[in-house]
Amino acid sequence: MKFEELPTPCYVVDEALIEKNLKILSGVMQRTGAKIVLAQKAFSMTTMYPLIGEYLSGTTASGLFEARLGYEEMGKETHVFAPAYRAEELDEILSICDHIIFNSFSQLEKFKDKALKAGRKVGLRINPQCSTQIGHEIYDPCSTGSRFGALVDQFRPELLEGVTGLHFHTLCQQNSDDLETTLNAVVEKFGEWLPKMEWINFGGGHHITRDDYDIPRLEACIKRMQNDYGLEVYLEPGEAVALNAGYMVASVLDFHKNGIDIAILDTSATCHMPDVLEMPYRPPLQQSGEPGEKAFTYRLAGQTCLTGDVIGDYSFDRPLQEGDRVVFEDMAIYSMVKTNTFNGMPLPAIAVKGRDGDCRVVREFGYEDFKTRLA
């Protein structure tokens, strides 16, 4: 079907744009020898896994279910990190994961021997206490009081036997200058243990496929760890795989006026794009402008009972009409994995736009999907 024939609301993932991103990531791998794995927490659309698997080294997971997904659907390297593991899940995790990364020395002390006996590569997450984000503490693993990673003053070298790698993840939608700053802090605080390791994982948050991203600086950071310490380097971006490669198509249902013209859509910020409220941010919208930039300004809002279910204020060249379609951009990452059915809102359909421009719906949801979420 054609793009304009898709049902709404609907996520649309553009296969050609996904592949464009993958080629950029693959280029980094080819030039440096580093390995890049998909962080499924940002994008776990298994329809795309065969294509992603053609370019990347595998997947990384935040727990058992994501680990199973990567293992079963991509079948390449499978990494896992969690702040704490459930003892009853560990056997299954160890049966499918190549790398298991522990968050603390207490977790290492509790589970390391079991992981080594299973023949898995064991890593420890470290916290370099180097914040490079401004104004987004919710996404800053180095913020004061963060639960992520062992601190240098808590280090217990006697427990490092069998640990072959260190992992840090401190970035969120950032460029490689922030990686370089973080890497300097890692070397300063944990440099004495790096020569004893075999690999290092730079974590995620690298916006490698963004137009202004400094790839040469990234590659210099990779080569620094390879040349100075002989380490194999891993990166685990999620957003970079599907950045600017997806859309949310919605329709205008009705209008309201209360100090501003309000268009009520058949989608929802709180249900279908929760990062709009969490970050917060205003998602890009095709054929629109900033409030007041064009002749007609509207507040675009959702159907739920949450007063703050507002996507943002946008302006248009002509008045919106009931039934008009609006297309939000960069909706493949995080939005799709965070959807919920609050207020009984239907989940959006999921479609793929093929390389030939034609679209196909790969999943639709109905009442049973809402009903069966809770007993």
Descriptive report:
The chain is of the alpha/beta class and 375 residues long. It has helices at residues 15-32, 49-55, 64-73, 87-96, 105-117, 176-190, 215-229, 239-242, 269-272, 275-278, 367-371, and strands at 10-14, 35-39, 58-61, 77-81, 99-102, 121-125, 163-167, 199-201, 232-235, 246-257, 261-265, 296-301, 310-316, 325-329, 349-353, 359-363. Strands 1, 10, 11, 12, 13, 14, 15 and 16 form an 8-stranded mixed sheet that branches. An 8-stranded parallel barrel has the order 2-3-4-5-6-7-8-9, surrounded by 5 helices. α3 (64-73) runs parallel beside α4 (87-96). The longest helix has 18 residues, at 15-32. The mean pLDDT is 97.
